[in-house]
Amino acid sequence: RRERQRFVDKNGRCNVQHGNLGGESSRYLSDLFTTLVDLKWRWNLLIFLLTYTVAWLVMASMWWGIAYLRGDLHQAHDDAYSPCVANVYNFPSAFLFFIETEATIGYGHRYITERCPEGIVLFLFQSLLGSIVDAFLIGCMFIKMSQPKKRAETLMFSRAAVVSQRDGKLCLMFRVGNLRNSHMVSAQIRCKLIKSRQTPEGEFLPLDQCELDVGFGTGADQLFLVSPLTICHEINSKSPLFCLSQRSLRSEQFEIVVILEGIVETTGMTCQARTSYTEEEVLWGHRFLPVMSLEDGFFRVDYSQFHATFEVPTPPYSVKE
Which residues form the Inward rectifier potassium channel C-terminal domain (predicted)? Predict the structure, then answer.
């Protein structure tokens, strides 16, 4: 069948776009720092370059303007004349003086004199403005580089979920794994069933969210994710999948969103990985192949079998039936 529109892609991206914000779009400017961090890298780099370029040109123009109004440009080569900034003859020299001051290079050829109060005021303003721009933009770039989004790419989910019996109970299962040796501290997993439904009052809910219990009451949702784990949701009378059978699975339309959260051990930042399973990616009567084996002094994980399943005898009826 043709693949339908997902609410959450397999890579975790949410297919939701906000439109017709009207006056609410001003909220993005009120939280400008977060807005810049959320932008894509190409826009971040463009804003970074444009901000510094414009600031440098404006400040260099102000130094050139002081020299022009005082007449320093015409008498700069006169040894008896005391200019505002020594050895500033034109705009390029004013620009170089600004860069030397901003970067604290201090070559010594160009320097401000004590007979220029307006230059001293501009120097103080330049120092304050430069500190603010550096703190804002460099802080934004640092936060963006340290975001744990890339860490989520080394957290794996099985391509399909399976339905089979475990301990005599019908269960929905999927597999999660961590490709890195560094651990996910306080890892926790949650599942949401997204399905349209109509209430007894006639209200239609297009994307109604129901919680799938994956061990919240027993603590099984708290994971020690050092090796691939099979997450299990028991289908019982309290489960939203109580009426799901092998036959009804072919006609159902739903999406199971899986959310894995934890703290990155190396950075201490919270990381979240997401994926989803549609009804076409739920295999009835299947079980995951084992991936763990004991070798000489350690356990080995074979990730080539991470997504592999095999058929097992499973009743085709729902738990309700």
Answer: 155-320
The residue type of 215 is G
Assigned CATH for 24-146: 1.10.287.70
Q: Report pLDDT digits (tens) over 230-252.
A: 999 999 989 999 988 999 888 88
Q: Return the domain boundaries, the chain.
A: 24-146, 150-311
| Number of alpha carbons in the 13 Å side-chain half-sphere of residue 209 | 8
Q: Name which of 248, 218, 220, 222 is nearest 232 in CA terms.
A: 220
Query: How many angstroms separate the Cα of 226 from the Cα of each of 20, 104, 130, 214?
Result: 45, 49, 46, 19
Instruction: For residue range 96-112, list pLDDT tens digits in order.
Output: 888 888 887 877 778 88
pLDDT digits (tens, 9 = 90+) for 94-151: 888 888 888 878 777 788 877 788 888 888 898 898 888 888 888 888 888 877 777 8
Q: In a 3-state reduction of DSSP, which class is residue 41?
A: helix
